[in-house]
From TrEMBL:
Residues 6-123 form the Response regulatory domain. InterPro entries: Bact_response_regulator, CheY-like_superfamily, Sig_transdc_resp-reg_receiver. Keywords: Phosphoprotein. This is Response regulator. The modification 4-aspartylphosphate is found at residue 56. SUPFAM superfamilies: CheY-like. PANTHER family: RESPONSE REGULATORY DOMAIN-CONTAINING PROTEIN, STRESS RESPONSE REGULATOR PROTEIN 1. One of its GO terms (biological process) is phosphorelay signal transduction system.
Length: 132
């Protein structure tokens, strides 16, 4: 993992996509591509080449974990880090979602003014864990 500049955000709810896009680009200074479904993310991930994926857990068609699994089967994306966003997650589900490539979990509703800071903190923590 190097510097975090490009984020692929996968979220089925349009209002959340819009708020997150503003929070990440305008406040955070990231380059952001968005997909409303996991299948769309699979179509655009190679062309966009994100540094990280910010992804909803519960989505129609492919869930967040299923989408990540499919992306990580693509050449060059086997180790792409991700952060989950979810409105509903129990502690037991949290444990099953977070693996070595998942940097963390952000609860919805999220604070748009601190979203970029949260993501950078998780990224930096992931960098130090990878170096350890």
């Amino acid at each position: 993992m190097g510097e975090l500049n490009k984020i692929l955000h996968v979220e089925d709810e349009a209002d959340i996509r819009e708020i997150a896009h503003m929070a990440l680009e305008l406040i955070g200074g990231f380059e952001v591509a968005q997909a409303e479904l996991g299948t769309v993310a699979l179509d655009i991930v190679e062309g966009f080449a994100p540094d990280m994926i910010l992804i909803d857990v519960q989505m129609p068609e492919l869930t967040g974990p299923e989408t990540l699994e499919a992306i990580r089967k693509m050449p060059g994306f086997e180790n792409i880090p991700a952060i989950y966003m979810t409105a509903k997650v129990s502690e037991s589900e949290k444990g099953s979602l977070i693996g070595p490539l998942e940097l963390g979990l952000i609860s919805k509703p999220f604070d748009p003014t601190t979203l970029a800071t949260q993501i950078r903190a998780m990224w930096d923590k992931g960098l130090s864990a990878a170096a350890a």
